[in-house]
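Closing statement on the zinc ion sub-project.
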Amino acid sequence: MTEKMRAFVLHAPGDMRLEEIDMPKPGSDEALVKMKSVGVCGSDVHYYCHGRIGSFVVKNPIILGHECSGEVTAVGSDVMNPRVGDRVVFEPGVPCRKCWYCRNGRYTKCPKIRFMATPPDDGALAEYVAWPADYLFKMPDSMSFQEGASVEPFAVGLYAIRRSGLYPSASVAILGAGPIGLATLEAAKARGAGQVILVDVMPNRIALAKEMGATHVIDAEKEDVTEKIKELTNGEGTHFVYETAGTAATFKQTVELARDGGFITLIGLPQEEEIAMPMVDALIKEVNFITSFRYNNIFEEAITLMGYGRVNVKPMITHEFPFAQTLEAFDITENAKDKAVKVMINF
Ligand SMILES: [Zn+2]
Ligand SMILES: [Zn+2]
């Protein structure tokens, strides 16, 4: 008889159940990991509430969660690393390793990528997950499982900073102080940014941005963001602008906030399929547009920066729940944004 384990299975929007399912068996190149912490992501909550994100639609029951860490309990016959007992962070996207993208170092663009909690692929809200050993990263002893589960969202911010080509001492504006905006803040600091200005509308997130080392914060509800940023940058705008809020208004605003020749990086995923942008102003200013989605080959750098304390993402973990209370964790993430930033589920 196959051994059983517990997992949260999403059947339809709003219908996620704790069930007994078969325990996975690691393949020859996989490790079996006992899950320890899973962070709740906006995308998990979106699938839970709406059953789809763009063209990804939940058609069959799916297990959510993709920000995760755990402890290795068994390994396949070909696995040298990690070993049983190692504490590991998951990189949640495993590509085919053979296609043009994989062979050219852009493996997260692999058309065959299997990405946790993106239909039809199962995610991490299960007691055990079998995962390819080379997409597991050993955690330093100094790192908690909760921090391990925060590597994934931090990687999103770090990758955006890498893609933008941020250079030391540059001035930075970040729109949105949710988990990705705050991750971008930490990454910008670690990569040597000078002035870092965070913009949001929620007092709890603005306070957190200040606590995590933003040099300036702006409450967009109370202040004129463009005017304030001009005032803080001798009338010029910032060298780099990062959009993490994912709204049409903030997308457009990036052009006003960047200085001439500046770099605008779009990270937030808007609901709208198309957004009108002030392209004439952008052209005259010669701004550089960069887009950034998830990450590529950056987990090792993320873990190193966190492990040596160059980056501290702990303040953004505002709530923790035991695995059995996963539904509550989802509810708080969706409905209490004025209190919750990153919500962690612990096994
Ligand atoms: Zn995520
Ligand atoms: Zn591939």
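The longest strand covers residues 30-40. With this model delivered, the sub-project is considered complete and its resources will be redirected to Aim 3.
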